[in-house]
Design brief:
Layout lengths: L3 H5 L3 H23 L7 H26 L19 H52 L1
C-alpha cells in the first residue's frame, strides 16, 4: 500500500501509470476471488484505497490548476516520534491502580455492612414473634 505523501512526489504521468497499475491489480484480485484463489481478501480493500488516493490527488491538482494555484509536490516529512508522557501523567496512571484497590476495599466494607443489618432484622422479627406469642397469653 502506498502512502499519500509518497504519491504526492510523483508527477501527473507517473500518477496515471500508478492508477492503471492499481486498477489492473484490483481486476486481478476480483478474478482471484471469483475462482477462490485469493488467500487474503483484505488486499482488495488496499487496492481500492490506493486507487482512491491517486484519484484524490489527481482531483486536488485539477482543482488547483483551475483556480490558478500552483500545487507543487510537498517535501515528505517523516512524522516525529511520540513524545514521552510527563512525570505527572505517569504518576496519575500509577495512582489509578491504587484507586481501583480503594474501590475494591470500599465494596468489601459495604458488603460487610449490608450483611449485619439483615441478621439484626431476622433477630428483631424473632423477638417480635415471641412478643406476639406472649401478648396472646395475657388476654
Amino acid at each position: 500500500m502506498t502512502t499519500a505523501a509518497e504519491l504526492e512526489q510523483l508527477d501527473d504521468e507517473e500518477l496515471d501509470g500508478r492508477l492503471a497499475e492499481y486498477r489492473r491489480e484490483l481486476l486481478n484480485l476480483r478474478f482471484q476471488i471469483a475462482t477462490s484463489q485469493l488467500d487474503n481478501p483484505s488486499r482488495i480493500t488496499g487496492a481500492r484505497r490506493d486507487i482512491a488516493r491517486v484519484l484524490t490527488l489527481m482531483r486536488e491538482r485539477e482543482i488547483a490548476l483551475a483556480e490558478g494555484r500552483d500545487l507543487t509536490p510537498r517535501e515528505y516529512v517523516a512524522p516525529s516520534p511520540r513524545r514521552p508522557r510527563a512525570d505527572e501523567e505517569l504518576e496519575a496512571v500509577a495512582g489509578a491502580d491504587e484507586d481501583v484497590l480503594d474501590v475494591d476495599d470500599e465494596i468489601d466494607e459495604f458488603e460487610a455492612e449490608e450483611e449485619t443489618p439483615v441478621d439484626d432484622e431476622l433477630e428483631d422479627e424473632s423477638s417480635l414473634e415471641a412478643d406476639d406469642e406472649g401478648e396472646g397469653e395475657d388476654d
